[in-house]
C-alpha cells in the first residue's frame, strides 16, 4: 500500500460528526483532534441532518442508548446516505442485551453503512451468529473470525472491521489482517470507540477506497499504541492514555511505512 491516507487526513482536516456515548465523548474528540481531524459532537434531532450533510464522515455509537439518541442516529444516517457521506457504526454491546440487539437491527434496516467496527461478539451478533459478551466487552468464544467478518460484510454490503489482538478488515472479498497494537489498549475505556471515529476520519479522505483507507487506519492506530506503550514503559493505563493521544499526532507517514504490519490475505 503506497498511498498515505494519514497524510491526507492531516492535510484535509476532515469534519467528523459523532453521535456517541457519554463515556467516551471527550476522549473521542481529543483523539480526533490529535490525529488532525475536526470533531463535531452533535446529537440534537433538530440539527443532526445539517451536521451530517456538512461532514466528511458520520460515526454512530450505541454505547449509552436512549430513544432520543436512536432517532437522531437514524436522521443523521439518512442524511449521510443522501449526501454520500461515509457512515460508520460502532454497535457497542450488541448481543449483550436484547435492546442493543434490536436497536442495531433497526439502524441496519434503515441505513446503508460504509463500515461497521466492533469486537467479535458485537459483529457476530450483527451477522446472526452467537458469541459470548460481557457487557461492552467480547467474551471467550470459538470460531473462524475471518469467515465471520466476511459473512457480515457480504450481509451488510459494507466494510467490516473486527478488532482484538489482531484486527480483521474486509469487504467480503478482500481481507486485511492488521497486527500492530498493544494489549494495554484494553485497559483504557473508549479505545474501541475512538478507533471507530478514527476510521471515520480516514474514510472521509478515502476517495472511495474504503477497504484500503480502513486498513491503514487500523494499522496506524495499533502502531500509535505500540509507540505510546514503549514511552509509558512500566507506567499504567493513565499515563498510556495521554501518551497515546500524543502518538496519534506524532506518528509520521515514514514511521507508518516502516512499522506497519498489514497483511492482505490470499483469496
Ligand atoms: P472490547 O470492548 O471487547 O474491548 P472495543 O470496542 O474496546 O472492544 P477492541 O477490540 O478492544 O475494541 O479494539 C480497540 C483497539 O484495541 C484496537 O486497535 C485493537 O487492535 C486493540 N486491541 C484489543 N485487544 C488487543 C490485544 N489483546 N492486543 C493488542 N491490541 C488489542
Ligand atoms: N459503557 C457503555 S459505553 C462504554 C462503557 C464502558 C465505553 C466502551 O468503549 P470501548 O471503546 O468499547 O471500550
Ligand atoms: Mg477494548
Ligand atoms: Mg467497543
Polypeptide structure, described:
This protein is of the alpha/beta class and 267 residues long. It has a single domain, classed as UDP-N-acetylmuramoyl-L-alanine:D-glutamate ligase (3-Layer(aba) Sandwich), CATH 3.40.1190.20. It has 11 helices and 11 strands. The strands form 2 sheets. It has a 9-stranded mixed β-sheet, sandwiched between helices. A hairpin with a 3-residue loop joins strand 8 and strand 9. Helix 9 packs across helix 10. The longest helix is centred in the last third of the chain and has 23 residues. 4-methyl-5-hydroxyethylthiazole phosphate (TZP) binds next to helix 8. Catalyzes the phosphorylation of the hydroxyl group of 4-methyl-5-beta-hydroxyethylthiazole (THZ). It holds the Pfam family HK. InterPro entries: Hyethyz_kinase, Ribokinase-like.
Keywords:
binds 4-methyl-5-hydroxyethylthiazole phosphate, binds adenosine-5'-triphosphate, binds magnesium ion, 267 residues, UDP-N-acetylmuramoyl-L-alanine:D-glutamate ligase, 11 strands, two-stranded antiparallel ribbon
Amino acid at each position: 500500500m503506497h498511498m498515505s491516507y494519514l497524510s491526507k487526513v492531516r492535510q484535509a482536516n476532515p469534519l467528523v460528526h459523532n453521535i456517541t456515548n457519554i463515556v467516551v465523548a471527550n476522549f473521542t474528540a481529543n483523539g480526533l483532534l490529535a490525529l488532525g481531524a475536526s470533531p463535531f459532537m452533535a446529537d440534537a434531532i433538530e440539527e443532526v441532518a445539517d451536521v451530517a450533510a456538512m461532514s466528511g464522515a458520520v460515526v454512530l455509537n450505541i454505547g449509552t442508548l436512549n430513544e432520543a439518541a436512536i432517532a437522531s442516529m437514524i436522521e443523521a444516517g439518512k442524511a449521510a446516505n443522501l449526501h454520500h457521506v461515509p457512515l460508520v457504526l460502532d454497535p457497542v454491546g450488541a448481543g449483550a442485551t436484547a435492546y442493543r440487539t434490536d436497536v442495531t437491527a433497526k439502524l441496519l434496516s434503515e441505513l446503508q453503512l460504509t463500515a461497521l467496527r466492533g469486537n467479535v461478539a458485537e459483529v457476530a451478533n450483527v451477522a446472526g451468529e452467537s458469541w459470548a459478551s460481557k457487557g461492552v466487552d467480547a467474551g471467550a468464544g470459538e470460531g473462524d473470525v475471518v469467515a465471520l467478518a466476511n459473512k457480515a460484510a457480504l450481509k451488510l454490503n459494507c466494510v467490516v472491521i473486527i478488532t482484538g489482538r489482531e484486527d480483521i478488515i474486509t469487504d467480503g472479498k478482500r481481507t486485511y489482517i492488521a497486527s500492530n497494537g498493544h494489549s494495554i489498549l484494553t485497559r483504557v475505556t473508549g479505545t474501541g470507540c475512538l478507533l471507530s471515529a478514527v476510521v471515520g476520519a480516514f474514510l472521509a479522505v478515502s476517495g472511495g477506497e474504503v477497504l484500503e483507507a480502513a486498513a491503514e487506519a487500523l494499522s496506524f492506530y495499533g502502531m500509535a499504541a505500540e509507540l505510546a506503550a514503549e514511552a509509558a514503559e512500566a507506567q499504567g493505563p493513565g499515563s498510556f492514555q495521554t501518551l497515546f493521544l500524543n502518538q496519534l499526532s506524532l506518528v509520521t507517514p515514514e514511521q507508518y511505512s516502516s512499522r506497519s504490519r498489514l497483511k492482505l490475505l490470499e483469496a
